[in-house]
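User: structure tokens for this one?
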Amino acid sequence: MIHNQPDKLVKGVAYHGNRILRHVETDLRDIVNHHFNLVVHMFSHTDWDRHRSIMKEIIQMTEGHGLDVWVDNWGLGGPPGDKSHFLAYYPDSHQVYSDGSVDPVRACLNSPHFRSFTKEWIDVVRDIGGKSIFWDEPHLAAKSMENGKPKVFTCACERCKGMFRERYGYDMPAELDDKVEEFRIWSVVDYFREVTEHSRSKQMENIVCVMLGGSYGINLDSIEAICGLDTLQNIGSDPYWLGKKDVHPYDFVYESTKRNLDVCRKFGKDHNIWIQGYATPSGREEEIIWATDAAYDAGARNILVWGFRGSESNDYRAKSPDMAWNAIGEAMRRITDRHHDGIRRSRLERIK
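Assistant:
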């Protein structure tokens, strides 16, 4: 597995929106030419139902080009990614907000049906040739933020309320407090614990990316709870800067990467840091280069970009996909050259 190759600079890109094999072949060559050595492939519920054999071929094609593969649980339990089709079969497994409203597209992580469904998905991923699972930003939803904390949060379904009462000895309050925040973190971590134990039993690598921000049930300050799981080998985050006020992409990515790496070192975990290549306004493409430099300067050696050609196949694509993709390729080239130069200098010093 890639984390056993200490000198390797892992450069990955997310790829989705296409299942036509002749176009995949062209795109894979383009990915190689832009200095990547890893592709993160989505494997959604729709892919499971409609593209299972096609995805097996896509994984084989990707590996045939010398590229490593991570398989993403895209939309399995809802955003990020597709809406959860699972909920059509188990309507009692929705996340529920503290005000009693139901989230229409997100599955409750404490639902035993959803956990069983996730394990079935893992089995299918193994069957199509997946060796490494990328757990993509699983989170609990929230809204009505105030001072960085949600006023309305999930999950407050009857199941979660009962579990909260059992753990703390009183009813879950309607307003976020320390115990509710603790329970939300526990829910995310316990879901990870169960499903990653299953994938590890299949000799699969487990990688997770955690969303930044207090509304998601877990953030970099509480990432230690996830790092304590021995079933997860690689813990990362996505310090996306666009849309944030008063931040410089280099500074923001550098500081966020340092914090992520400090926790990973503490627990002996590998890392993954994501660079924002989507939603890039015209004229700001060079920020992708600055951010990639920042992640490398902070010590990251597993650096990935969302996504292929500035996520051209999505409504949230870069405004000028050609320019964004050019900047992404230049960013990967720069850190590749720096990495090779660093290895060469290090070996020369050892020889002397």
